UniProtKB/TrEMBL annotation:
Family designation: Belongs to the glycosyl hydrolase 5 (cellulase A) family.
Gene Ontology biological process terms in this record: polysaccharide catabolic process
Signal sequence residues: 1-32
Ranges where the record places region Disordered: 52-119
UniProt name for this protein: Glycoside hydrolase
InterPro entries: GH, Glyco_hydro_5
GO molecular function: hydrolase activity, hydrolyzing O-glycosyl compounds
Keywords carried by this UniProt record: Glycosidase, Hydrolase, Signal
């Protein structure tokens, strides 16, 4: 889930400035220096790591979690700096694979699904769901009939947080929130969970507090996984697809360089716990077609484990640091339960960098390491935020932005290797006329990307401030209307 836009946002202006300058410096040195595709990755990694380590302290209001998950002692989020990706080669030969016959000529805006109308029934038919399950075809996600399905998702946060259930259920009926999502023109939802939620839920040591689902009495006295079941059912009933995302290990709001959750294991939750959690989730939803895929791990990034700083690497570093290897293991665990899950895999540097995947692409199997190869289910995931550019964001120019995105991960679609799902991106509604959003929007259109906006929620959730909205949240504070309808209109354009 997300990055901690809030934590980032809350950083003092001075810190943001420093961050912005850092980004600029890194981008400039990458572009001016080696340039092109020759930027030594190790150098880049080191730069990124030091940028992360050196960035200003962010802030999290109300860091102390309530009842469950007291382990949030490492309260202070850190603002994550992210290097502007190195400028790289430019390729515009995106060659859209258009096979005659089995593919819809031009997918309508909104893809094969999204009901954009004003449906009023809480439990609609499943008419809008494409022919599931989905698979990949070159750089596209397609359904069983070979029709392109463009994912236009929104993140519904909360399952990873200390209440262990998606947000808003204390304020609004589940069906109402699900309906809002379809009215917003989305066709799928990114739902989050923590390893802690799954592991404790299975052991029966985690309970959903009544106040967390106060507006939905039928959910009282359920475990977190049962609430997740109910949420997924409600979403699929209105024709929405679901992608389950492993956001954190600890149940908390995340993602900084100092929240101890940057890798796929932590001091408290081992890699085995992670794999176990995927095992549980993948088995549980193996017969729920609306669960189209899994996000194996959110924003892998430098972190601290066992008292030492560690940075995930792609295809290097051995079992404790090699993210590519870990993703293949978890992908294997998931696919052993159902080979038709889409598997979403994020790169290093908080899902901004897939450069090394060019030389070391992921290979998925149904069961790691010896299961049969599973082709056509891998989707790479990337994240991109307004806040990462500090005060320079609104001055962003399209050409350099495009070059940077293409070099980092856009190459995946340009070379027709696999689809890329922009799994998180977000902007404050009052910055939609600025350079970053205009560039982002144009890039998504030009590259025809699948995406997921961050985020739906009408408040900041239990580990931050329930009485305040998140600037990026689309719903208003009572979770039954749009806070900034113009933002919904922006999203309907892509
Ligand atoms: C974090 O924010 C709180 C409340 O806004 C403030 O009191 C505190 O000093 C801040 N801490 C840092 C490290 O900025
Ligand atoms: C709902 O949609 C129908 C047609 O699709 C339209 O006639 C009607 O005015 C709409 N109602 C509202 C409240 O937008
Ligand atoms: C989720 O990710 C965390 C790391 O952020 C990891 O520790 C945990 O095991 C993962 N859980 C699952 C079920 O993937
Ligand atoms: C949210 O929007 C709905 C629908 O427009 C409205 O009825 C409600 O009062 C709004 N809530 C808040 C807190 O603004």
């Amino acid at each position: 889930m997300v990055p901690a836009p809030a934590a980032r946002r809350m950083a003092a202006p001075r810190q943001r400035l420093a961050l912005g300058l850092l980004c600029m410096l890194l981008a400039a040195s990458a572009a001016a220096g080696e340039g092109g595709h020759g930027v030594p990755r190790s150098a880049k990694r080191a730069a990124v790591a030091s940028a992360v380590a050196g960035s200003g302290a962010g802030n999290r209001t109300a860091a102390a979690p309530a009842t469950v998950g007291k382990r949030d002692e490492h309260a202070q989020g850190r603002k994550r700096a992210a290097a502007g990706p190195a400028a790289g080669r430019k390729r515009d030969d995106a060659g859209k694979p258009r096979r005659r016959g089995d593919r819809a000529p031009a997918p309508a805006p909104g893809g094969a699904v999204a009901p954009l109308g004003n449906t009023t029934t809480p439990a609609g038919s499943k008419l809008w769901l494409p022919a599931l399950p989905l698979k990949t075809w070159g750089r596209y996600i397609v359904d069983q009939r070979g029709q392109r399905v463009k994912l236009r998702c929104v993140a519904w946060s909360g399952g990873q947080d200390v209440w262990m259930v998606p947000g808003g259920l204390h304020r609004q009926k589940l069906w109402k929130i699900a309906s809002m999502i379809t009215w917003g023109g989305f066709n799928c939802v990114r739902l989050h969970f923590s390893v802690e939620m799954v592991v404790r839920s299975v052991k029966g040591s985690a309970w959903v507090q009544q106040k967390a689902v106060a507006a939905n009495p039928e959910l009282y006295n359920k475990g977190p996984l049962e609430v997740l079941d109910a949420v997924i059912k409600a979403l699929s009933d209105v024709g929405l697809m679901v992608i389950i995302d492993n956001h954190t290990s600890d149940a908390m709001w995340c993602c900084s360089g100092f929240d101890y959750n940057g890798l796929w294991y932590t001091d408290k939750w081992s890699e085995a716990d992670w794999l176990h959690a995927w095992d549980v989730i993948a088995r549980r939803y193996a017969w729920t077609p609306a669960v189209i895929g899994v996000g194996l791990r959110n924003e892998p990034r430098p972190t601290i484990v066992g008292g030492a700083a560690r940075s995930p690497m792609w295809g290097a570093g051995g079992p404790g640091l090699d993210l590519a290897l870990a993703l293949e293991k978890a992908g294997g665990a998931v696919l052993s339960h159902r080979q038709s899950y889409l598997v979403f895999a994020s790169g290093i540097t908080a899902a901004r960098d897939l450069i090394a995947a060019r030389l070391r692409p992921l290979v998925l199997r149904a069961g790691w390491p010896h299961g049969a190869h599973v082709n056509n289910q891998l989707v790479y995931e990337a994240h991109e935020y307004f806040m990462w550019y500090g005060p320079l964001a609104n001055a962003m120019q399209y050409e350099p932005f495009k070059l940077a995105m293409d070099a980092s991960w856009g190459w995946v679609v340009l070379t027709n290797t696999a689809p890329v799902w922009l799994g998180e991106f977000g902007v404050q509604p009052w910055d939609v006329h600025g350079g970053w959003w205009q560039s982002m929007k144009r890039y998504i259109k030009e590259r025809d990307l699948d995406w997921s906006y961050w985020l739906l929620d009408g408040d900041q959730g239990p580990s931050r401030n329930m009485n305040a909205r998140d600037d990026l949240g689309l719903l208003n504070h009572s979770w039954d209307g749009w806070e900034h309808p113009e933002m919904i209109e922006e999203l309907k354009q892509i």
